[in-house]
Amino acid sequence: MLFCYMEKQLSFGDYEFQMKKKKNKKELFLERMEKIIPFREWCDLIRPFYYENGNGRQPTKLETMLRMYLVSNWFNLSDEGTEELVDDSRAVRNFVGKEAPDATTLCKFRKILEENNISKLIFARQSKTFAERKIYLREGTIVDATIIDVPKSKKNKDKNYTEGYGHTKKGKQNYTGIKAHIGVCDKTGIAHSAIVTPANVHDSESANACLHGDEKKVGGDSAYIGIEKRVDVREKFQDGTGEVEWLTHSHKKPPYIACKMKEEVKFQISEKRSKVKTEEQKQIEKNKSSIRAKVEHIFLILKHLFKYRKTKYRKANKNENHVFMLLALANLYKISTK
Fold first, then answer.
1. Mean pLDDT over residues 89-105, rounded?
2. Which of 49, 66, 144, 270 has the most beta carbons within 10 angstroms of its beta carbon?
3. Entry pTM
4. Distances (CA, A) of 316 to 158, 208, 290, 311
């Protein structure tokens, strides 16, 4: 009996930590995530691909691995950096658990998620759940994209970037990396669709992947001018009447389609600044921008809270899975702040 009592007894460090009156930002953040992350649901998605219990050494608990993987995403850390943070921070160690694995085990777990596209499954399941519970509405979507630059250290042995990256220029700045295209609900700002492409892919080319087809309103900045004429977009919003007629087009422009679209679908795309001259036009564009600003909130969480301003891995497919995981976490954080 005495031995059982001694096992449960707190150490002086644990007691001092629990009696601390003021909590820091990291503790408050982890407490909020503890309440809102659906650990059971996500573990059920990962379990078919995780190690099975055998007669030999038992694998680390799945939920413990998931918690440590989430910490590496929230704080934008490497596997080694995550292990050090768990050792140094008592708040993080309490969140992960006392049986936190080492960096090598975390690396193997991350590869399991990447090889089986688990992050995409989690994001897709989350979008379906949010739609069923009406956490996000399907009447309107705002589309936008952001560039994630590649650090110079991510070059391969030939001093070149691997496949999946692209070169582009925004303003006077040159970028080499990937581009995350997302579609968010115009009421709640929750991301429901996403696609990751090389950075040189134009925003309008991936607009179709960011729409679910039930929209009555579609918003976007001036990069999306003319998306209502694109073949893939018009086919998604066909009203089912009339024959499809292909129009002549230049080889520099995407093929256009003349089929009828649903009348209730409205495209509210911002004009280029050079065409906005009168006060009335400025007010119209201001109203569009106030609605479109919701899509920037997700990018704000990704780039400032999660500090995801540059790609984390060398291979593009690993970064793609990373983006989907961060989007799912950003949605949950946005819900927790309401």
1. 90
2. 144
3. 0.86
4. 17, 21, 33, 9
Strand pairing report for 173-185 and 191-198: antiparallel
Decide: 244 and 258 in contact? Cβ < 8 Å: yes
Q: Helices 25-36 and 316-336, interaxial angle, to 10°?
A: 90
The total number of residues written for the chain in this structure: 338
**Residue 78's pLDDT band (cuts 50, 70, 90):** very high
Give residues with Cβ within 8 angstroms of 9, minimum separation 6: none
Which two three-digit tokens encode residue 330? 């950003």
Contact 217, 239 (CB under 8 A): no
Q: Residue 81's pLDDT band (boundaries 50, 70, 90)?
A: very high
Question: Is the model more confident about 240 or about 77?
Answer: 77
Cβ neighbour number for residue 264 with a 10 Å cutoff: 11
What confidence score (pLDDT) does residue 169 get? 87
Tokens of 168: 């582009």
Q: What is the pLDDT of residue 314?
A: 83
Mean pLDDT on 229-254: 62
The mean pLDDT value of the chain amounts to: 85
Burial class (CB in 10 A: 0-12, 13-18, 19+), 86: buried
Predicted confidence (pLDDT) at residue 107 exceeds the cutoff of 60 = yes
pLDDT at 145: 95
Stretch 78-88: mean pLDDT: 94
**Exposed, middle or buried by CB within 10 Å (0-12, 13-18, 19+), for 11?**
exposed
